[in-house]
Amino acid sequence: MKKGRVTSADGVSLATYEAGNPKGPEILFIHGFIQSALSWLRQMQDAELGREFRMVAYDFRGHGGSDKPAESSFYTEDRLWADDIAAVMEAQGLRRPVLAAWSYGGRPVTDYVRHHGPARVAGINFVAANVKDDPAFTGETFALSGAMQSDDFETALRATRDFVRACFEVQPEQPDFELTVGFNMAVPAQVRKAMRSRTQNAGDLLQTLTMPVLVTHGAVDRVSRLARSQHTASQIPGARLSVYEGIGHAPFWEDAPRFNRELAAFVRAAQA
Fold this sequence. Notes:
Blueprint: E1 2-7, E2 13-20, E3 26-30, H1 41-44, H2 47-52, E4 54-58, H3 78-92, E5 98-102, H4 106-116, E6 123-127, H5 145-148, H6 153-166, H7 174-185, H8 189-196, E7 213-218, H9 226-235, E8 240-244, H10 251-254, H11 256-270
């Protein structure tokens, strides 16, 4: 992957990653809470996707290789997250990408549409994505969130390890598990706390989305209940729901061949 840097509107430097066909239809991958662009390796490094599509990913502010300012004000305002997506699109020259957003990544996508409008978005693949805050949609692993924000390193590490395990019904091999725990722990405690203190997302934008939308969810997700994506699909006109039986919170990793086929078909149709 080609690595780069992008400066957002408030001066925060974001790590970016690019792979695939530089002239192909565009996909922008947006990861989840305390994750990284490395979450998308089974897409960014897939030979078939790479032949056809231009793929870009970035690390959230406070995550991965991006800047990690300590002040909570860098994480609590919706506009900042919207501007990050806009900055990546502008710097990478993305004309009209499909956005693939996993879990917490759904929130920055709705922030972007709210503040920058939908004109430059060809379509959205919401993957177990949080586009409306509702306790009824959270899985049993939400109980880990308090310990994951602890200032005590061992407490946070143990909870984060358990959270990573809970993200997968089909467990990753040990090297991949260790890599994932590593980039999860790269997110400082103060960043985790600030992100959890953001205003509630009412889900009011869902019915206004008119671009093609694919909603993907694992049937045995323990982090985010299937009801979340069922609600999302029911609220967006024309949205299609794709449920993965026997799969957890990370269908793009646990069943990458199916996910990649469905994403490729969706991008072709959205950008036709």
